[in-house]
Amino acid sequence: MLLAAVDYYRPDTLAEAVEALDSTEGARPLAGGQSLISILKLRAASVDLLVDISRLEDLRAIAVADDGSVRIGAGVTYDEMAMSPDLHRSHPRLSQVAAHTVDAQVRNRGTFGGNLCHNDPINNFPPVAVALEATMHVTGKDGDRDIAAADFFTGYFTNALSSDEILTGVTLPALNGRHMGYQEIEIGEAAARAVAVVATSNGNIESASVALGCLPIPVRRPQVEEALAGTPATADAVAEATAAAGEGIEPLSDADASADYRQAMASVVAKRAVMEAIEGGQNG
Amino acid sequence: MTAPAKEQTTTTTWTGQSLPRKEDERLLKAQGSFVDDEGMYRQGYAQFVRSPYAHAKILSVDVSKAEALPGVIATLTGDEVKAMTEPLFQFAPKEDGSQVNEYLLGVDIARYQGEGVALVLAETRGIAADAADLVEVEYEPLPVVTDGVAAAEPDAYVLHDSLGDNIAWKGLFDWGDIDWALENADHILKIDKLHFHRYSSTPIECNAVIVNWDPGTDMIRVVSNNQFPMFGALVIGPSMGVGTDQFDFVSQDIGGGFGIKINSYTSIGVLALLSRKAGRPVKWIETRTEHHQSGGHGNERTFLDIEVPVMADGTMLGFKMRAFDDAGAYLHYEPLGAVIWSQVVPGPYKFKHVQVDYTETLTNKCPAVPNRGYSRMQHLWFVERVIDLVAQELELDPVEVRKLNYVQPEDYPYTTPNGCVYDSGDLPQALDMVLEMIDYEGAKKLKADREGSGKRIGIGIGTTLDSGTNNFGQSRILNPELPFSGNGEACTALLDLYGEVMLKLGTNPQGQGHETTASQVAADILGMSPETIRVWTGFDKSHSTYIGFSGTYASQFAVTGINAVIGAVEKLKAEIIEVAAYAFEVEQDQVELVNGDARIIGNPEAAIPFIGIANMVFANNATLPHEMAERVSLTCRHVYVPPFELPDVEKKYGNLTLTYSTQTHAAVVEVDEETGKVEILDYAVVDDCGKRINPMVVEGQVHGATGLGIGAALKETFEYDEDGQLLNSNFLFYHAATAMDVPNIKTSHIESPSPFTGTGAKGMGEGGGAPLHTISAAIQNAIGPGKAIVSDSHNPPERVWRMLNWDGPAEERGVTVVSNGDGA
Amino acid sequence: MASGPGPTQDIEFTLNGKPVSRTASSRMLLIHFLRDELGLRGPKIGCDTGHCGACTVSYNGKTIKSCMALAVQADGAEIDTVESLAGESGDLDELQESFRENHGLQCGYCTSGVLMSAKFLLERNEKPTAEEIREAIHGNLCRCTGYVNIVKAISGAAHGDEGLALVERLNREHAKEVSA
Fold first, then answer.
1. C30, C55, C84 - which closes a domain
2. For the complex shown, is ipTM > 0.90?
């Protein structure tokens, strides 16, 4: 409950933040803190300097581009995502997911970037980023770079950032008529989770992107996506195409659920996410 | 639901009104006083060093680095505690005297993860936490015992050498003639195993203590949220070598207790030792992780080899089984749980023949302590599981089987096979009411309609008893030498110098509204408004009145506390009237009390306000006859003692509890076939606790007990891995029910007054774990006959999913029916 | 008092409408700062992990759990606690009064946090449904009430006397919807 000694610094600019991270051993960025402070309270990680990036204006905007893609600042809170008319128009299901993430107090404080960087398997946005093929924008001492979502998550609680780098924002491609489905098994936060982005035409699935969460690294399911492409957008066809969604994944076993159960549930949530995306399309 | 705006006259009856609580204004404005809101001058902050191992020899404890940290005041180790104290009193040593030796801090061996092995005291909370990290403890891991049944095996690793085995208590309970019943029944239902899981009501405020052992007076002042301090004093006093007269226990507001907060007495004791050593007051606020690992868990119980004799019409003759209670590593309040379940042996049914081979074992887990529904709900869950399995396996209607076997309204007072007396009730009516509340016929139709949809409907019923006001004589069944029996509570009613009415209670409530209900009954007796009566808040041993049983636990305030209030206030009333009659020069029966005045009946002009009465007694006593001035104190103490006799310890027979509230629950659930997730669609409760002093408070207790039970049934469990590591050490993995998990709970009530309590009221706070019974039944109903049986009280999605997907052979279902004629 | 050795920062913020200017240890949680340094009793501590919500306060108009923020992060912020609800007169506000009338609290330990969550909800949504109320307070654990009377109290504050009737009707409708 009580943190070990730590220093704190709130830079005014992104450059200052990068500089602080680069020059201080054991420095970590602090955004909403809804994961990091919890870890520090349990003294499960040792940090010497917290660099508070939660007020950096560069990180706090949601901007829709002409092509319909949307850039969400890493420091945007879940609540700000939920309340954003722009995001509601561009990615309505994501807006809805943000509106129901954890609870009101966490939504008011937790940030999109923090949720992604922390990559706790129970976090909900990593599989969203992977399914949508998001681009992660990063700034570090050597300048800016972009990382594909598929390459961003590297393991349990880890990501591709080096210690001087900060995730500044994430660009989600336009849905362009596709719809997103998001389904989870709510045990604790979630024991299994799937995100599907599906395009349908004339009652058939044109293309589908399916990602599973609640894993050390969120994964796409290419075999499932191939099986879905071209099949009728019906419950039976989707059930058949997603039946093997959990094959080969290695979920955790913990107090909430066994790996066996999580694996079995992977295909259930995958099926439900795809059906939700299809129904989203049918509903307009 | 607001305060009735009636004219305040002697005819007003405050008892029975849903008055808003007196306690609420301060709590709503954050003006309550919980332990962490308090402090003592010069206090230091304590932090425990706790064993990360479930079972390990403590080879060495090195506090030198911690003591060298600036700001550290003192440390305390198990060896020091061993040198300055005796092992804690045990309720039931074996006949040869062997027993568990427990000290106030882990000594030589740590026996569960989270057991305290050292303490540090520092100037701030932060330094204390830092210093605890610097204490170096060398451990040598030992084999770990986590299974409460296997712990009883002869080859199990023994936790306590001083005990010789892991058996805390063992006994055969045998009433009626089970062998006859099994021979003569038409059918025998056999169930291999049922398991009631470990969980806790996890109060949101964790344990907390501020203690000062004053070196000048040798008084030990304890500000804590312990809910049964007199019990704690009886146990730790002898260990510490101090008299109970040295303890001054104080509590004001307590952030939930549920029985769990009985357990903090060992912490109080060791923190007092730390205070003595440091010469400073000590403040300790338990963290959530500490609370889950070491604050106390509810009892886990396993039922094996169950046999149930049933007649063809569904009449059940009783049951036979073996029960194993897992007490954890030390006996805190245990093994009282080994006998407390026998307050409700047949549940709400007329079973005559019961045999229970009972064993309580020690394992490398957190000590089990009372948890709302203590020891009875485990047994009542078992009884309800049996009823539903009988109905399912014999293709009988679960409603009709219940009605057939219930104790009937005309049977009260009903004596159970072990001599307990059920006081009153109307179970068939309660069942009819609750079924109507969930639209039973509609639910059955919904169930049929939803077949094949992937979502199954389950309907469950749970009848339960809430036995209140223990006869502590039942502890003699464990150990005939124990000098405990009966029960009781105290109250003192006073007029203060300016004629103000005050009540001092022996209880220390945790949200049950005692200030309100006590003032309601006192107001009726004194003919005044409850608003004008001050009930002293909380408990303070230096001014509160108390007896050895004083506290707030075991569903009894409405009987013991309220009757103590009535007795004390009646005595006060008599004194006021005596003084007034003297002043008026009339007979005492010519005086009445109205709105804070004593007046001559029929002559409102002739009135003396209470201030005048107080003045005569306290400040103007030469106006009174000398004999009266010395005798009348306007300070009237009453101890209510319920009418109990000693049980027959040989036969384990006697009336163990004064009152039996009933609760009948019904639920409609939806089970997702693909995921095993259970959603509650409808939930209703019919409560019968006799006469209700404040119906709104009663309903609140019903809601609370139901909410906790629903959480336990579906989400909340304490589980250990094979190394004895707790998997649910905080709210990250202990999923306490949220507002999204508990549905709107429909409530209704019957009032069957108790003939034994004077007021007709019964205790009702614990609720008997009914949602566990009800939801197990509903899930079973959704799964249907011929499939897996619900054999655990905790049913998270994965367990339900496994039951739905179980397709083993019939003989592995864990339940069989043997009928007379096929070899019974 | 929660602080130990280590770096400190000077911070200024507004607490319940009044300016605060202090030095805070960098490692100190906001909840400890409010309770131990500033002497507030409203925000409570009930867990280690940010799950119980007893410490809920308003931070720049939005609720947060004050055990999940550092005191130094309060610099420049406007923070309101449950102490701000009853006015200068000390009278219960409408929401608090509804909790009293509807028995929306028992032990009172979670109540400060629940009130702050309810206030935030009602500022955004004047007439919430029972389901919306439940969602809004599901970051606040209560072990005494089964939440029934908390939902009723919030609904009562929002909808007046029809609060209870509305909650019950909405729950019935919800039950039908789920099972339809």
1. C84
2. yes
